[in-house]
Amino acid sequence: MSTPTRPALHPLPTTLAVVALVAAGSLSVSSAPAQAAACNGYVGLTFDDGPSGNTPALLNALTQNGLRATMFNQGQYAATNPSQVRAQVNAGMWVGNHSYTHPHLPQLGQAQIDSEISRTQQSIAAAGGGTPKLFRPPYGETNSTVKAVEAKYGLTEIIWDVDSQDWNGASADAIVQAAGRLGNGQIILMHDWSANSRAAIPRIAQGLTARGLCAGRISPQTGRAVAP
To answer: How wide is the angle at C-alpha 166 spanned by C-alphas 118 and 88, nearest 5°?
Structure first.
């Protein structure tokens, strides 16, 4: 004669015990401390040339993957898309100055350079993006005159350590590989309008996590990526 099968125990007592432990603070279900401990270094993710009609999708991809970035906005676009500047800030991003019309600054006189930088400071502030502390010269082109104007407005010049080449048609795979070269404190160049950079974001996030790196802010004091 076979032994009767015992009825399954009701899981409710176990559930109540877990709830009691959580309420008492004996059992933590939050993963935030583990995530914080995993940040052994910080990198700067940067996106140039916004804001634009592409900005909402970019912000959505970044926030869904737990990433923050510095958005180097053109003044002319901040002036015409002020709601997107506010959206960048509301999504936890930092906003920097990328000139007003994206010219080759070293080819301009000091007064023209001043206009490019000062109008962008004004348009970003007027849009709700705060007064930028970081400046990225278009094309990474700079000289002593550009630097003098930056200093006048209290701006720190930010170039990059890794170029994603998204502006040159790099694939999402290539952009992910570029981000994989980032080391602690380093900065990568990407663009607001690049669909491939946006598509690469989930894998960029995974790659950083796997290497114990987190997306940080760029320090105006050092020009390097640091803890937010």
So the answer is: 45
How many angstroms separate the Cα of 45 from the Cα of each of 31, 112, 148, 213? 23, 29, 26, 12
Question: What whole-number distance in Å separates Cα of residue 180 and Cα of residue 24?
Answer: 42
For residue range 139-194, list pLDDT tens digits in order. 999 999 999 999 999 999 999 999 999 999 999 999 999 999 999 999 999 999 99
CB atoms within 10 A of CB 85: 27
Please, what is the Cα angle at 13 between 9 and 15, to 5 degrees?
110
CA distance 57 to 205: 16
Which parts of the chain fold into alpha helices (H)? Answer: 12-24, 32-37, 55-64, 75-80, 82-90, 110-126, 144-152, 172-179, 195-210
Neighbours of 145 (CB within 10 A): 16
How far is the C-alpha of 156 from the C-alpha of 150, rounded, in Å? 7
Give the global pTM. 0.84
Q: Fill in the DSSP letter of residue 105.
A: G
CA separation for the pair 187, 116 (Å, rounded)? 24
pLDDT, one tens digit per residue, over 4-61 is 444 444 443 433 343 344 444 444 333 344 444 589 999 999 999 999 999 999 999 9
Which residues are bridge partners to 90 per DSSP?
none
172's tokens: 């999402």
Tokens, residue 37: 């401990």
- How far, in whole angstroms, is CA 157 from its chain's centroid? 17
Active site residues: 48, 191
Through-space distance between the first and last CA atoms of the chain, rounded to whole angstroms: 69
